[in-house]
Amino acid sequence: MNVRTRSSAVIGSLCLVVSLAFTTASADESAAPRREAAAKVALKQVATAKNPSAGAAGPGGTVWIAERAGTVRVLGPQGLGKPVLDISDETTTDGERGLLGVAFDPRFAHFYISYTDLEGTSTVDEFAVRHGRIRPETRRTVLTQTQPYANHNGGDIKFGPDGYLYIALGDGGAGGDPHGNGQNLDTLLGKLLRIDPRGGKPYAIPADNPFVDDPNARDEIWAYGLRNPWRFSFDSGTGDLLIGDVGQSDWEEIDWAPANSDGGENYGWSRMEGNHPFRGATEPANHVPPVHEYGRGGLGCSVTGGYVYRGRAIPGLRGQYVFSDYCDGTLRALRMEHGKVTGVSDLGVNGGEVVSFVQGGRGELYVLDIGGSVARLDPA
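Above: the chain's sequence. Below: its structure in token form.
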């Protein structure tokens, strides 16, 4: 499927690809574990949105979908309802910017949005939620980070099994990490952050964050050495962390950390791209290599991290990590044991320009195509 021959709505969103400087990727996974038979799945379109960018499981079994320009809508039996939140006059969609992430806290008492404001600053805001509805008057800003360029903003947010908020930020943009942010512990760029948004004003630092006693490092950092961790997730069955980190020009990677990790992982960027030294650099002694990588050679250009499937509708897929690529659109799955990939499968369906996955409250997965489709992963 040639995803570049889509409607004008999709063509208008191609600036997301052009400005990303995302690594080209492919179906060439010669270094990967064995191929295996895939679970039989289908994609059922359940709604159409205007450039859907992210989503989250909401109260009462609902699924909330963010649209890149700044609106949030709730998925119902008849599709998406009217916006329950609209910040479109406060955000910009040039480059990779826009409304990039949404999350509820574990009790659905607060709703968080991650977006770039009109100046391009990465911003995380909080709203109180009552009876399943956002209370706009309670809005407050939790965290901001200036961005030197319009790409590699990251922007994904998730609550971990520990109840803390994790925030993914890219290396700041351009190409090749010109400011060395990936390996610099004195900046939030190129990092996965971990904060307690309700523990202080504007937030508190968990006492067991890995760098709280290091005067040369930012206390918020949980992991570093990331180029553009566009999408990450926690396995709802094990608590393990998986990150889809977009590469530069040769390799896309998926990183993993066990649920009992103490944090501090160095995923290597910009000295490493996947398992490979970047531009002749030396591999850091503490480099944590990806559990999976794939290289240039096909239609791929940018890994879109997904979720470990824990739903009930597709028993043959349970426990496997489902992911895709923005340009290739093919859904794939990794079978893993103890942090090692033991099998890779092509699920045989194409989600278009897959920008994100959403995990519903019962573990079922939804696939977002930036062109507009919101589809559910169903049994074939």
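The first helix runs from residue 8 to 12.
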